[in-house]
Write a structure and sequence with these properties.
The complex is a heterodimer of chains A (269) and B (342). With 269 residues, chain A is mainly α. In chain A, 76% of the residues lie in helices and 0% in strands. Chain A is built from eleven helices and no strands. Chain A is elongated, with a radius of gyration of 19 Å. In chain A, 46% of the residues are buried. Chain B has 342 residues and is of the alpha/beta class. Chain B has a six-stranded mixed β-sheet, with helices on both faces. A four-stranded antiparallel β-sheet of chain B has the order 2-1-4-5, covered by helices on one side. The chains are: A mainly alpha (269), B alpha/beta (342). Chain A binds chain B through residues 1, 6, 9-10, 13, 16-17, 20-21, 24-25, 90-92, 94-101, 105, 267-268, and chain B through 56, 59-62, 81-82, 84-85, 87, 89, 91, 93-95, 97-100, 104, 108-109, 111-114, 140, 156. The complex binds adenosine-5'-triphosphate and magnesium ion. Adenosine-5'-triphosphate (ATP) is lined by residues 22, 25, 27, 45, 47-53, 92, 201, 326, 331 of chain B.
């Protein structure tokens, strides 16, 4: 078994390797920055006028941005699955598995590098948001808490996607599969429109959907909650920070060991 | 079976009764082999024979269903971590990170072998130089040709000076010049004390590099020994000559009959005579003397030793080329005979 120091040092080597790829393949960085900008602008100006249900006086930009943040980082995390599948296909996982390195470093290095990409995305989105009228109306500490919560949640999703990548093994299939799952997950949530406008069944799902709570938590922490909205019935939405953290911890507790186990047993063919 | 070990007395690799099944398909049906320290074992066999499966088990990538394997005195199942620190692996398909440069690839692997930063860097430099990659050292491996990737991949497996090296078809896809370079390099490594297990479909390569050989087919060992021992199983050397006319064929047949150690074979069509002999070049000299006193007119004469294609044909009843049980459709490396892809 590797010591903690060895695991950290191996993970740093792998993270660096993954970030070098980001530097050399501009598509990745373009995807991580342009698509969030597009989303911010699109929702702000195309749907901005049509979306109903907000109390008068609340800026749609303020309501919208935390939703975009959450959706983007969750999608950003799906990169983890595709990248692992690519490494598997190209025989790199075999190479790593034949080395006397820490057993978890390949996955840690991967998820940490993807977290780095998500940080870049969030910064770009926040700046774009500020341009189109989004504002932080809370303390700096709360705002930082909001960003951290989004990143912690995304990091947990990365580990889930690592497992998917190791099982599915084809980057394109991982991408399609995660789109099919993640897309509804981020839309059947209060990402873009208030839950009050949902039909009942969907609303119940949305209330307990952790994407809803991460969005609501971010809204609260950034001070973007419209004042006049009715108090939610669901416990999850009443305690969105706690509920989101519980999900993140649960996902990590399940998928870190499962993914490491799958990594140790997988092979390129 | 098996000749005495060439150099070391201890075994760097011991494999006993190795069995591996993939569903219904038995890839290895009880393979035994050993590699003496400081020697090269050539693992030969056609497509699908199980060569890669052996290498993957020895390099801890796969768990066997039965049997035992030891590398550098360590059990691959229970001491996998220590085994990994002692080995280098070059898989059948190059496993380099194409987004990293040659230097970055080697430094990364060096660091993961727990070399210090400085040492990883200097080893990377040495190996890039040794493998003729210095000019491309700072280019992403994406821009490398197949042969360059292959060389980089092998360099990566050598970065920490492994005691035992596994090379799965190391020269497949290399041009003749690079192949010769690789052979020299492998010889150097052995000279420095590295133990090597290499798989190959190039019979010439095994003949040239390996101290001992194990031939497997469909997961079973079908022959083992030194190249000479394997060739002896097929039969010894033959004297072969070609003459210009059928009359001449009768003349040389009469002249050489006393030298034959077995059946002579005269082919009227090609006007070739072939006879099993012993005694090597002395016999050849004697044959030439007899031919000249018989005033025979010989176009071409030579001693021919059986090559491993002959060995394979004799052992399996089919040539290595058409032995592939699976479809070769997904195999980029289906050519078998040495030097066929130039
Ligand atoms: N992961 C796997 N799943 C299923 N079958 C496998 C797997 N790996 C190998 N096999 C089968 O095991 C047998 C031996 O394969 P192996 O790759 O060891 O052969 P090989 O001698 O290396 O062949 P080649 O010269 O084509 O590389 C083949 O029949 C192959 O189809
Ligand atoms: Mg193979």
């Amino acid at each position: 078994m590797s010591t903690l120091a060895e695991t950290v040092s191996d993970s740093v080597v792998i993270t660096r390797r993954n970030l070098i790829k980001v530097k050399r393949v501009p598509d990745l960085i373009v995807f991580a920055t342009l698509s969030p900008i597009m989303f911010v602008v699109l929702f702000r100006y195309v749907f901005g006028g049509a979306i109903q249900g907000l109390p008068p006086g609340v800026s749609y930009a303020e309501f919208l941005l935390p939703g975009i943040f959450a959706q983007t980082v969750v999608f950003g995390s799906t990169v983890t699955g595709a990248s692992i599948a690519e490494d598997l296909q190209k025989g790199l996982i075999d190479r790593f598995r034949s080395l006397p390195m820490s057993r978890s470093a390949v996955l840690i290095g991967r998820t940490v590098a993807d977290l780095g990409l998500n940080v870049i995305s969030i910064v770009v989105m926040a700046l774009t948001g500020l341009v189109v009228g989004w504002r932080i109306n809370s303390s700096i500490a709360e705002a930082i808490g909001g960003f951290l919560l989004l990143l912690v949640f995304a990091f947990a999703i990365s580990w889930l996607m690592a497992m998917v990548g190791l099982l599915v093994r084809t980057p394109e299939v991982v991408n399609n599969a995660s789109f099919i799952v993640i897309f509804p997950l981020t839309f059947i949530a209060d990402t873009f429109v208030p839950l009050e406008t949902f039909p009942t069944v969907l609303r119940h799902f949305a209330e307990w959907n952790p994407v809803s709570t991460v969005v609501r938590a971010a809204r609260e922490l950034f001070g973007n909650m419209p004042a006049g909205l009715p108090e939610p019935d669901a416990w999850s939405l009443q305690n969105p920070v706690l509920y989101t953290l519980l999900w993140a911890v649960a996902i990590l507790a399940v998928f870190v060991p499962l993914s490491v186990r799958a990594y140790l047993r997988t092979s390129s063919r | 079976m098996g000749g005495p070990s060439v150099r070391g007395m201890t075994n760097a690799v011991v494999v006993e009764g190795l069995v591996k099944r993939f569903g219904e398909n038995t890839a290895l049906g009880g393979v035994d082999l050993t590699v003496s320290e400081g020697t090269v074992l050539g693992l030969l066999g056609p497509n699908g024979a199980g060569k890669t499966t052996v290498v993957r088990i020895l390099s801890t990538l796969l768990q066997p269903d039965a049997g035992r394997a030891e590398v550098a005195g360590l059990d691959v199942a229970t001491q996998a971590d220590q085994v990994r620190a002692a080995i280098g692996l070059t898989g059948q398909y190059a496993a380099v990170d194409e987004y990293l440069t040659g230097t970055e690839n080697l430094e990364m692997v060096g660091r993961l072998y727990r070399l210090g930063k400085k040492e990883a860097r200097s080893r990377a430099g040495q190996l890039l130089e040794r493998f003729d990659l210095t000019g491309a050292a700072n280019r992403p491996a994406k821009t490398y040709s197949g042969g360059m990737r292959r060389r980089l991949d092998i360099a990566a497996s050598l970065i920490a000076r492994p005691r035992v090296l596994f090379l799965d078809e190391p020269t497949t896809g290399l041009d003749p010049r690079s192949r010769l370079g690789m052979w020299e390099f492998i010889a150097d490594l052995v000279h420095d004390g590295t133990t090597i297990l290499l798989t190959t479909q190039y019979l010439e390569e095994a003949d040239r590099l390996a101290d001992r050989m194990v031939v497997i087919d469909r997961g079973q060992v079908i022959a083992r020994g030194t190249a000479d021992e394997l060739k002896a199983q097929v039969g010894g050397e033959r004297l072969e000559l070609t003459v210009g006319t059928v009359e001449q064929l009768a003349v040389v047949t009469d002249a050489l009959r006393p030298l034959a150690h077995g059946e002579l074979h005269a082919d009227q069509q090609t006007r070739r005579l072939s006879l099993p002999v012993t005694g090597g070049t002395d016999t050849l000299a004697e044959a030439l003397r007899r031919l000249s006193s018989a005033r025979a007119d010989v176009l071409d004469i030579g001693l021919r030793r059986p090559d491993l294609d002959d060995v394979f044909l004799t052992l399996t009843g089919r040539s290595a080329e058409d032995a592939d049980p699976d479809s070769a459709a997904d195999e980029p490396t289906a050519t078998v005979s040495a030097g066929a892809q130039s």
